[in-house]
Structures are given as C-alpha cells and as structure tokens.
Write a structure and sequence with these properties.
mainly alpha; 70 residues; single chain; rod-shaped
C-alpha cells in the first residue's frame, strides 16, 4: 500500500501532536531549568548563624558539665 506524503501543516491537530511527540527527546542528566548562583555579596541570615554557632568557644561543653555536676 502506498502512503502519500501529507505536509505537516495540512495534517489534523491530532496527527501533528503525535508527530511532535515523536520528535521530542529526553534531556538526560541535564536540567533545562535556569539555575543561578547565590549572590556572594548578599547577606544570608542562615549562613551568619551557622558561622556563629561553629565558632562559639565551648559554651555547650561548659553548660553540659555544669548541669551534670549539680
């Protein structure tokens, strides 16, 4: 049986959708969404709090020993 070529714009909407669905590809591991890095100069409350807690000189150890001995 001979299939006659019909241009894409002459096909029905359903057939156009099916054709375009076959043409789409998978992005694989690439995320097509735009990603932007943080502004290094902007103030970040969470980052500031973490630094303060990391560099606090042994207050937690002193408090724990004081409570244990009481």
């Amino acid at each position: 049986m001979n299939h006659k070529f019909i241009p894409l714009d002459k096909r029905s909407k359903r057939e156009q959708k099916e054709y375009h669905a076959t043409q789409r590809r998978d992005w694989g591991i690439i995320d097509p969404a735009t990603q932007k890095s943080e502004n290094a100069k902007a103030y970040n409350r969470k980052k500031s709090k973490q630094r303060w807690l990391e560099h606090e000189p042994g207050f937690g150890f002193f408090y724990w020993n004081h409570v244990q001995s009481a």
